Amino acid sequence: MIKKTKKHLDWLSKNDSGKQLDIENMAITDLNIVKEDISAAICTKIDFENITFKDSNLGGSYFYNCIFHHVNFTDTILRKSEFYDCEFYDCNFKNVDLTKAEFNNTIFKNCSVIDSDLGWSFFNKSKLEQLTITSTSLKSTMFNNSFIIDIRTCRLIFSEKYPMRVMIDKSIKEIRNADEFAKWLKYEYV
Questions:
Q1: What CATH number is given to the structural domain containing 137?
Q2: Residue 79 is part of which domain span?
Q3: Any residues with CB less than 8 A from the CB of 139 and at least 6 apart, and which?
Q4: What stretch of H or E contains 44?
Q5: Nearest-CA neighbor of 78 among 92, 94, 64, 98?
Q6: What is 96-132 written as a DSSP string?
Q7: Is 10 exposed, middle or buried (0-12, 13-18, 19+ CB in 10 A)?
């Protein structure tokens, strides 16, 4: 495990442009990743714990069966990234570009999203529980067959032209400050 993590750190330090990061079956812990371009990475079965991504680009990356514990994303790009069967626990997203990101069968529990952009993102068969969303764009964000439980919202940013869409399948359990959230929804019944 240490050898694989060292290999990954060596890859980061070389700034080896033109090569795509492709890692699997490892744990990466207690690491600060600052001002790194890791775009279009492929991560499979990675446990990220106590990691900070700051001013980094992970845009267009693919994450399969990854677990994120206590991961802080600050001023980071995750635009057009795709997450499949991933889990986020106690993670923070601050000033993060998540536009057009896809979350498929992904869990978010006890996380916060602040001053970020979730515009045109897609949540499919995902579970969002005990999530706090503040000063974040949800323009045309789509939730399909997702469980939304105990969400706290404040100063959300919406668009009348591109409303947030929720595919109704009896999955929404509780949204606090629901008036702010619900007035921008376009419901589609399935």
A1: 2.160.20.80
A2: 2-189
A3: 119, 120, 157, 158, 159, 162, 164
A4: strand 42-54
A5: 98
A6: -B-TT-EEES-EEES-EEES-B-TT-EEES-EEEEEE
A7: exposed
Stated pTM of the model: 0.83
Residues 139-151: what's their mean pLDDT?
A: 85
Specify the DSSP element, H or E, that contains 182.
helix 178-182
Judge whether 46 and 66 are in contact, CB under 8 Å.
yes
Contacts of 68 (CB under 8 A, 6+ apart): 48, 49, 51, 86, 87, 88, 89, 91
Q: What is the pLDDT of residues 31-67, one digit of tens each?
A: 999 999 999 999 999 999 999 999 999 999 999 999 9
Instruction: Map residue 54 onto helix, strand or coil.
Output: strand
pLDDT, one tens digit per residue, over 167-181 is 655 455 555 445 555
Cα 138 to Cα 16: distance, rounded to the nearest angstrom: 35
Residue with tokens 């990101």: 101
Instruction: List the structure tokens of 159.
Output: 């668009």
* Cβ 3 vs Cβ 24: under 8 Å: no
Using CA atoms, how far apart are residues 152 and 135, in angstroms rounded to an integer?
12
Q: How many domains does the chain have?
A: 1
CA 134 – CA 181 distance, rounded (Å):
11
Q: How far, CA to CA in Å, does 129 sit from each of 110, 171, 175?
A: 7, 12, 10
